């Protein structure tokens, strides 16, 4: 028999975490329900504002963000909306959207106590640099001085009285990285999510859920915009990739002479040397 603590049908009514769905529809918002489903209880007003802000911070990061790029490219091929969005969600992993989970694990396993935070941060950074490891949740290819999303979320957490030991450890690590490494690696939005959700009591394995939920809104919008453009495969053509071929030289199955050489081909764009049929593969 399957067991769940999430929902059930009771006397013809859907019950979610003990609340009838009609009750939730009338009295709470989406952020409340996210916290209810993932955290187990309805949030207070301070937590609600923070959860809502975190979801908003994930919705988009431009058409070149990997998940969004893949969703648009998929939609350009003419597949259904659900499939294009699923393609984008499937791109969320260790290297895109996954740093929050990994950072939360680091923060939680450090078990920060207020008086020990500076020493913990110092040791975490020292060991990471010694082992030539990066600390997830720090650094960004665009933001070099600060990630405005992370700063805004942490400021909001302070105003709502919800910044705890994990937030302070995350900021202490940012300072230690700059001091020990000699250059700034900003606490990014993934790191901010990790710290805030850790202080809200979420296990590190739940952190990526918030990124997936928030980003799905942006994936829907981008995929729909691409589909509405009415230009099949146009998005693929607008983002050519220069590829250096390093495979075998041209050869023949029948044993004819081979032509030795290498080539660089731009695929998907107007300058491509490939045929129209090849570009559509």
Verbal overview:
This protein has 281 residues and is mainly alpha-helical. It has three domains: 1-43, no CATH class; 45-239, Orthogonal Bundle (Cytochrome p450-Terp, domain 2); 240-279, no CATH class. Helix content is 52%, strand content 7%. The strands form two sheets. The protein has a three-stranded antiparallel β-sheet with strand order 1-2-3. A two-stranded antiparallel ribbon has the order 4-5. Helix 3 runs antiparallel to helix 8 (148-159), helix 5 (81-90) packs across helix 11 and helix 9 packs antiparallel against helix 10. The radius of gyration is 24 Å and the shape is globular.
Instruction: Describe the strand arrangement of the main beta sheet, using strand numbers.
Output: 1-2-3
Report the C-alpha radius of gyration, rounded: 24 Å
Distance between the amino and carboxyl termini: 46 Å
User: What's the CATH first level of the largest domain?
Assistant: Mainly Alpha
Please work out how many helical segments DSSP would assign. 13
Task: Give a nutshell description of this structure.
The protein has 281 residues and is mainly alpha-helical. The protein is built from 13 helices and five strands.
Features of the shown structure:
Cytochrome p450-Terp, domain 2; 281 residues; globular; 7% strand; three-stranded antiparallel β-sheet; mainly alpha; 3 domains
List the helices and strands and how they pair.
Layout (H helix, E strand, L loop, with lengths): L6 E4 L2 E4 L2 E2 H7 L2 H10 L5 H14 L7 H11 L4 H10 L8 H11 L7 H14 L17 H12 L5 H17 L7 H11 L7 H22 L5 H4 L3 E5 L17 E5 L8 H4 L2
Antiparallel strand pairs: 1-2, 2-3, 4-5
């Amino acid at each position: 028999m399957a067991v769940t603590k999430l929902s059930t049908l009771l006397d013809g009514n859907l019950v979610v975490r003990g609340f009838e769905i009609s009750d939730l529809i009338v009295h709470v918002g989406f952020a409340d329900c996210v916290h209810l489903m993932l955290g187990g209880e309805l949030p207070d007003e301070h937590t609600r504002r923070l959860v809502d802000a975190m979801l908003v911070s994930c919705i988009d990061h431009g058409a070149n963000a990997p998940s969004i790029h893949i969703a648009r490219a998929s939609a350009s091929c003419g597949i259904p909306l659900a499939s294009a969005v699923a393609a984008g969600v499937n791109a969320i992993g260790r290297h895109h959207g996954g740093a929050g989970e990994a950072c939360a694990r680091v923060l939680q396993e450090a078990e920060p106590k207020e008086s020990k935070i500076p020493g913990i941060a110092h040791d975490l950074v020292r060991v990471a640099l010694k082992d030539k490891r990066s600390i997830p949740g720090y650094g960004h290819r665009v933001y070099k001085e600060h990630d405005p999303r992370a700063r805004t979320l942490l400021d909001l957490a302070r105003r709502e009285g919800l910044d705890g030991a994990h937030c302070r450890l995350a900021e202490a690590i940012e300072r230690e990285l700059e001091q020990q490494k000699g250059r700034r690696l900003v606490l990014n939005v993934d790191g901010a999510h990790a710290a805030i959700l850790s202080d809200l009591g979420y296990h590190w394995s739940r952190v990526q859920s918030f990124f997936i939920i928030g980003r799905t809104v942006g994936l829907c919008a981008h995929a729909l915009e691409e589909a509405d453009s009415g230009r099949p495969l146009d998005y693929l053509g607008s983002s050519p990739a220069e590829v250096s071929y390093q495979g075998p030289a041209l050869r023949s199955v029948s044993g004819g002479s081979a032509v030795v050489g290498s080539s660089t081909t731009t695929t998907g764009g107007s300058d491509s040397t490939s045929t129209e049929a090849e570009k559509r593969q």
